[in-house]
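Q: Predict the assembly, please.
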Amino acid sequence: MNRLAPLFALRKSEGRKVLSLYVTPGYPTLETTVPLILALERAGADMIELGIAFSDPIADGPTIQESSSVALANGMTLERTFQMAREVRAASNIPLVLMGYANPIYAYGATRFVQTCASVGIDGTIIPDLSLEESGEYRALAHQHGLASVLLAAPTTSDERLKLLDEATSGFLYCVAVAGVTGARTGVAASTVGFMDRARTHARNHPLMVGFGIATPEDARDAAHTADGVVIGSALIKILATGTPDEARAFTRSVRERLDAPTP
Amino acid sequence: MTPAQAALPDERGHFGAFGGMFVPETLMTPLKTLERAYVSARSDRAFRSDFDRLLQEYVGRPTPLYHAKRLSERFGRGKIYLKREDLCHTGAHKINNTVGQILLAKMLGKPRIIAETGAGQHGVATATVAAMMGLSCAVYMGTEDMARQEINVTRMRLLGAEVIPVHAGTRTLKDATNEALRDWVTNVDDTFYVIGSVVGPHPYPMMVRDFQSVIGREVRVQSMEREGRLPDILLACVGGGSNAMGLFHPFLEEATALIGVEAAGRGITTGEHAATLTMGTPGILHGSYSYVLQDEDGQISPAHSISAGLDYPGVGPEHSYLRDMGRATYASVTDSQALDAALRLARLEGILPALETSHAIAYLETLMPDTQKDTIVVVNLSGRGEKDLPAITAGLARSRTA
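A: Predicted assembly structure:
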């Protein structure tokens, strides 16, 4: 049973926003990932995106690039990512989404990949370089195994294309807040609000998650106004780079509180 | 080869199984806009006449087809011609493509040009044409390549381009391409990304091939004038594969044999090479599905070549297609074979080739003994060697003391 639809339905009925956190498994070390995820869940995360380390992450800014190369240097592989997902799943029912570039997935074998995802309790996948046009076969395969294949929409996406993405995505539609790579930025741009308005209008069939560049609890709250939930990645990775898991938990709690606070 | 195959890619940018558009969603609409603009430009009389005029007046086309008599005599058989792309303005074939793409950038109203470069020839060609057309230009280059192609870094800066050092990964062409893609995804509104080879997402492999095909078209005409027939064999080095594709494409439907020469680096079995079509497997890198050098986990492997322009773990998707179809064959030569060939061509013909080009020259040693007396071989002399003087002299000194 896919955990994404019930999560979005529950939060919607509560009038709350979904908080998804991006983690690079294997960063900063192999041992810290599973306890970190469980701690983030207790601190208020609703969903975890597990980033598959890749040598050439073209959609990522310096923070996630660095975390990816550290994870690879630590010996991280797709197989190990699955193992960590299994360990999380043994202790928690939190929705898990794998986020990774197409090449390691193709090298693993697309069929084997979706089978393994389903068997370890992954709920969906996000493959940023597998475009709508190139993902047809993969989406069909994922669907057969009850796995959501989440597509992305961007500020450069036309209204017409938003409709096509909405038809083809499953689980939710991942809206890229700004044209650019991942990485913490300051504030939520007016262009993000405009884009999310268009997304609302033209992608009516799926929940909208907004991510890329959301750095602070305030940004999260502002961005969440435009969507069903927010994704935070680089800001969390930055905390892990220099801080402790406790600081990551505290950050998550403050984002959760800000998201849940009544609008002033 | 049927005409339909030469008409590839299909409408989705595929060459058989290869090619396509494997990019973040942010780039999909800009790529489709670019494709539409290019498709309308290539049949637009004004665009074509601008392009042809610049190739003639600015680049210096047509380039000569030179009969290399002393080089041919070395083998006692066959007739070797050199297609002198090294005589193009800026010293390599790269400028054929940058003229075309920057004309498109103007048409699309983009004031800012970016590019990636390995050897620096594409960077210099881009900086040159951007200067000539009054556009701002930034070139991404790995720090390893900046060190070994210092002359071209200076040239780009003199031309007013900003050279942005890339410290990530292997600090070579692959990482420069990653950074250029990240720049483009961030600045897509005002920026045109000039890709330097037949790689990247559709429409780049098609567009770069078309702009470079002037090489092969001229060879057809020149060979008919000189020999009354088309060549038997075409030979070109392959990194991403633009000079090879430009030479090969007008011959796809002919009987002419097509041979691409990759960089075997320190040896094909050492793991330190850039022989993607020889040793790689299909995968996704820089926006298209093609052969790549990768490990079993799908991580891209570092390539190695003495030649910065061939030091790339990917290759253009159309080459992958031609390889799998058996329409072209791909061989490889080592760093030291390429160095020897550079020196040999200098001594025999008074032409110092780029280290990239030297790979094609080196392969003549393997190819020529099997040819007939009247076999016509055309080698694409894709670039000149001045940029490589430090590497060539250092390499020769090493091999003398080894």
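Chain A touches chain B through 41 residues (CB under 8 Å). Chain A is about 50% helix and 15% strand.
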